[in-house]
From TrEMBL:
Species this protein is from: Anolis cristatellus
Gene Ontology CC terms, in alphabetical order: mitochondrial inner membrane
Entry EC number(s): 7.1.1.2
Domain of life: Eukaryota
Protein name: NADH-ubiquinone oxidoreductase chain 2
Transmembrane segments: 59-76, 96-115, 152-171, 178-196, 202-221, 233-255, 275-294
């Protein structure tokens, strides 16, 4: 892809998110989401490989369906209340529809089916864009409509996402799929706290964005597409191997690392709201995620010389 076209596409991607984040009218928010989707399709399908074409098609269909649902819910709301203002979503059925549409757009379970497949079909750099930048616009819509969204649905979405993200991640050998399930689990934590304290959700999102970006950059530098590839990271750069270990443990939520802070605050807030069974279930699901992060950590840094490596060297 020529640099000019790539620049245009990336600027469209940025513009789409910014338009959604700064709009108060539902049509403008929808335009931003559509611009975002249309800009990332060519980025996913640049590989000219059947898998990337399939990934681009899956991404397009799910995002277009989610955008249509968002537009539909806002139209029902406008029909019943007479306003297109994003913050004035007061009609209950349209709120329910909106929360399901945003779940599909973000990849929250049970509407998560497209995310691992799309990430597996795209390059590591594209996967980085999908798991970080592409989450900003829907999260800003959740933030703006927070006071009206049904909290029961959000709590259930959060719980299922966290659990499914943990369970399904255990079975993976591809780093991109592991990162996809990690993303689903983290978004579950954000959905869980969204209806209770939105500022914790924002902090959670920021920490997630930083850690995911850093880990994807580490994977890109070490060209690690499978768990086996991570074992030879130390041959390329020992410093990178140590950094990856810290990042993975942080993503898993081990104290005293950064990733522990959002989980701690979310659990504390859930207990304050007397949602103790929910907090227990979330803590248990975090252990599932922690297992596959620890497995990655083990292959990355705990199989150093003079121990026997389980894989061939890259060189």
């Amino acid at each position: 892809m020529s640099p000019t076209i790539y620049t245009i596409i990336l600027s469209s991607l940025a513009t789409g998110t910014i338009v959604t984040m700064t709009s108060f009218h539902w049509l403008m928010a929808w335009i931003g989401l559509e611009l975002n989707t249309l800009a990332i399709i060519p980025i996913i399908s640049t590989l000219h490989h059947p898998r990337s074409t399939e990934a681009a098609t899956k991404y397009f269909l799910t995002q277009a369906a989610a955008s249509a649902m968002i537009l539909f819910s806002s139209m029902i709301n406008a029909w019943n209340t007479g306003t297109w203002d994003i913050t004035q979503m007061s009609y209950a059925p349209s709120n329910t529809l909106l929360s399901l549409a945003l779940a599909l757009k973000l990849g929250l379970a049970p509407a998560h089916f497209w995310l691992p497949e799309v990430l597996q079909g795209s390059t590591l750099l594209t996967a980085l864009i999908i798991t970080t930048w592409q989450k900003l616009a829907p999260m800003s819509l959740i933030y703006m409509t927070m006071n009206n969204l049904p909290s029961t649905i959000l709590l259930m979405l959060g719980l299922t996402s966290s659990t499914i993200g943990g369970w399904s991640g255990l079975n993976q050998t591809q780093t991109r799929k592991i990162m996809a399930y990690s993303s689903i689990a983290h978004l579950g934590w954000m959905a869980m706290i969204a209806s209770i304290m939105s500022n914790i959700m924002i902090m959670n999102l920021m920490v997630y964005l930083m850690m995911t970006t850093a880990l994807f950059i580490s994977l890109i530098c070490s060209k690690s597409k499978t768990i086996q590839d991570t074992a030879t990271t130390w041959t390329t750069s020992p410093t990178l191997a140590i950094t990856m270990m810290l990042l993975l443990l942080s993503l898993g939520g081990l104290p005293p690392l950064t990733g522990f802070l959002p989980k701690w605050l979310v659990l504390e807030e859930l207990i304050m709201q007397n949602l103790i069974p929910m907090a227990t279930a979330m803590a248990m699901s975090a252990l599932l995620s922690l297992f596959f992060y620890l497995r990655l950590t083990y292959t990355t840094t705990l199989t150093l010389p003079p121990n026997t490596l389980q894989m061939k060297f890259k060189w």
